[in-house]
Amino acid sequence: MEKLLAVLGNPIGHSMSPVMLNDVIKVNNIEAYYLPFHVKNDDLPAAIRGLRAIGVLGFNVTIPHKTAIIPLLDEVDKLALSIGAVNTVVNENGRLIGYNTDGYGFLKGLNAYITSLSDKKVLVIGAGGAARAIYFTMAKMKPLAIDIANRTIGKAEELIAACPFDTSSKALSLVEAGDQLAEYDVIIQTTMIGMHPKIEEIPISLEHLNQQSLVCDIIYNPLETQFLKEAREKGATIQNGIDMFVYQGALAFEKWTGIFPDVNRMRENVLLQLGGVKC
Ligand code: ATR
Fold it and tell me: CATH assignment of 104-240, given 3.40.50.1400, 3.40.50.720, 3.80.10.10, 3.40.140.10?
């Protein structure tokens, strides 16, 4: 009998996960369906009770439920707990266990360009939920340094203070980060600047960008933000947010089924959903 996999969000209609994951379910001959559910904030506890009752195989959780889900689970992985957000839940013999595959998804995508972080200086731009997942997961890998630049510098300071891993980190204003941009090997843009309707904006000046740097943006719609466009024009290597999205889904699928799926196929699938444009 087919098992249920799901994604819960509010809203959920825009999610590209169902098409991407139903395709890998099919090609891997898994007896399951992955369905999107629009769950209102107040209905989250009832939705989780329902999923338990029907013996869900596992599910993803997206905005705005990633934090609210935590007290509703039986166990939460240490990293997800420190991030304060769960995006993947596995049903292990009736116990719901929460994980966060966003940060690892980003790191897996980075592997195509960088294998070791031990000699790399990293800059994270932004100090919101996405930055938190990436920062904590990267800090665990012990880069040479990992600084946070944010419009509200106090939030960058809070993030650094909350990090459970020993790391060399400084909180910077966006202007300070722009001034010392040449120092960084990897620059990761995690704010919504560059997304519709702010598609012409960039979070920091790229005037001092080093051509050897890898510049990443976690946004994938548009595929090339203004930030990435300017970085590319300055000769840097760029990476958009497609890989992070694909790998967080691939890692979730692996947790549910034990199979690591074909990420190239998943990437093609997402690009098709975005309108057939190539990276
Ligand atoms: P997410 O969970 O998607 O990361 P979030 O938690 O709302 O979203 O965080 C948004 C991030 O984008 C924050 O770092 C925010 O900066 P502040 O902490 O100063 O609010 C940043 N951000 C949003 N709009 C911005 C803008 N116009 N200029 C600079 N930074 C902005």
Answer: 3.40.50.720
Nearest CA to ligand 1 atom 29: 151
Q: For residues 219 and 202, what is the distance between their CA atoms, to the nearest angstrom? A: 12
Instruction: Give the class (CATH, top level) of 3-100+243-274.
Output: alpha beta
- Give me ligand 1 centre to Cα 126, in Å: 6
CA distances from residue 64 to 130, 175, 236, 253 in whole angstroms, order as listed: 13, 30, 34, 21
The protein residue with its alpha carbon nearest to ligand 1, atom 10, reads 128
Say which amino acid occupies 39.
V
Does the C-beta of 190 come closer than 6 Å to ligand 1? yes
Mutate to test the pocket of ligand 1, among 100, 192, 226 (most ligand atoms within 8 A of CB): 192
Ligand 1 and 189: CB distance under 6 A: no
Atom 18 in ligand 1: residue holding the nearest Cα: 152
> Residue 279 has what pLDDT?
45
pLDDT tens for each residue of 31-57 = 999 999 999 999 999 999 999 999 999
Report the half-sphere exposure of 256 (CA within 13 A, side-chain side): 30
Q: Locate the domains of the chain by residue range.
A: 3-100+243-274, 104-240
pLDDT, tens digit (0-9, with 9 covering 90-100), for 84-118: 999 999 999 999 999 999 999 999 999 999 989 99
Kindly give the distance from the C-alpha atom of residue 219 to the centroid of ligand 1, in angstroms, as a whole number. 13
- What does the pLDDT read at residue 1? 85
Does the pLDDT of residue 147 top 70, yes or no?
yes
